[in-house]
Design goal:
Layout (H helix, E strand, L loop, with lengths): L20 H9 L3 E6 L36 H13 L6 E6 L9 H12 L6 E6 L6 H13 L1 E9 L3 H6 L6 H13 L3 E8 L6 H13 L4 E6 L2 E2 L3 H7 L8 H13 L6 E4 L9 E3 L6 H15 L16
Parallel strand pairs: 1-2, 2-3, 3-4, 4-5, 5-6, 6-8
Antiparallel strand pairs: 7-9
Helix pairs in contact: 3-4, 7-9, 9-10
């Protein structure tokens, strides 16, 4: 593997000291691959009353699908609209339709089947990503996912956010860490790639708790992990808590240190889907420094260099030296 300069991390052909999603996909498919966010108009069990109401306290009205096309458009129309916009940045590349908004296994199997297969037929598609909750994986849905997995490169993205049940309760997640492990293991038993989502900066969590979440999910050796920064968005229950002074958001320096600590405990083979996130600028209340996404990413890169560190550096089983 080609590395620039003295980068000690093997899963990189740039200055990155962690296993980026871009690097993984380029090596797997031979050229640039980008995801196209979709909103199929689904809901969640902690919204519709099955398990709770109101959804997660941090979640926008679009269920994390703020950058997808409108849900009233067909999958094909959404795909073409978003792909057209992204093609201005990447003129040549493959695509992965990303079922992102709300819970994308929370519908009748026949509805899910139609949606998934419609996405499979979209031009330049080399895989599918499906975002869901670990407690929305019924047997008939698992059979469908297993079927899709045999036909394409499938990744199921599971929202965990934190391993601590008290945090899950505070943010109205309406499932436990035990529920997460059950869903995760059902997918792994079927050889389905899983990407685990965590959020740094959730109310009541210390640096040590956030690091413990990363250590714990690292021990599961998932295919991928997404590290999100908590965004306080207008119109959410969390915005009300923040405005009442019930918690504080992380500073840029705190966030960079937390992420670098977490990366050091994640297996080097695990793909890092992201190290920060996007909050819609018109809705973002805090932290405002997060609007400069590339600054955040650059600070993480610089901190890893300053430490002489890289993803997986603190794992005893790490065998490579970079020589």
């Amino acid at each position: 593997m080609r590395k620039k300069g003295d980068n000690p991390f093997p899963y990189s052909d740039s200055n990155k000291r962690y296993h980026t999603y871009d690097y993984f996909l380029r090596n797997k498919f031979g050229k640039k691959v980008y995801k196209v966010s979709l909103d199929c108009g689904f809901t969640c069990p902690n919204i519709d009353g099955t398990k709770g109401y109101g959804g997660c306290t941090y979640c926008s009205g679009r269920g994390s699908g703020d950058f997808a096309a409108p849900s009233w458009l067909s999958i094909k129309e959404q795909y073409e609209r978003v792909r057209e916009a992204l093609s201005k940045k990447w003129s040549d590349g493959f695509c992965i339709p990303y079922f992102q908004a709300h819970t994308n296994t929370y519908a009748p199997p026949e509805v899910l089947r139609h949606k998934y297969y419609e996405a499979l037929c979209l031009p330049n598609t080399v895989g599918i990503s499906i975002s869901t909750r670990p407690d929305c994986l019924e047997n008939d849905v698992l059979k469908l996912l297993e079927e899709i997995n045999r036909k394409t490169f499938l990744t199921v993205e599971l929202g965990l956010q934190s391993i601590f049940d008290q945090t899950a309760k505070r943010i109205n997640r309406c499932h436990t860490f035990a529920d997460f492990l059950d869903g995760y293991n059902k997918l792994k038993e079927r050889n389905i790639n899983v990407c685990i989502h965590i959020i740094d900066g959730l109310p009541g969590e210390s640096h040590e708790m956030m690091l413990e979440s990363a250590k714990t999910i690292g021990s599961l050796c998932p295919h991928a992990v997404k590290i999100h920064l908590l965004h306080v968005l207008s119109g959410t229950e969390m915005a009300k808590e923040y405005q009442r002074g019930e918690f504080f958001v992380l500073s840029l320096e705190e966030y960079v240190n937390i992420v670098c600590d977490q990366l050091e405990y994640l297996p080097p083979e695990t793909v890092i889907g992201r190290v920060t996130g996007d909050g819609a600028p018109q809705d973002l209340i805090a932290p405002l420094w997060s609007l400069k996404k590339f600054v955040v990413m650059n600070e993480i890169d610089k901190e890893l260099v300053r430490r002489g560190s890289f993803q997986g550096a603190r794992l005893q089983k790490t065998s490579f030296t970079g020589k």
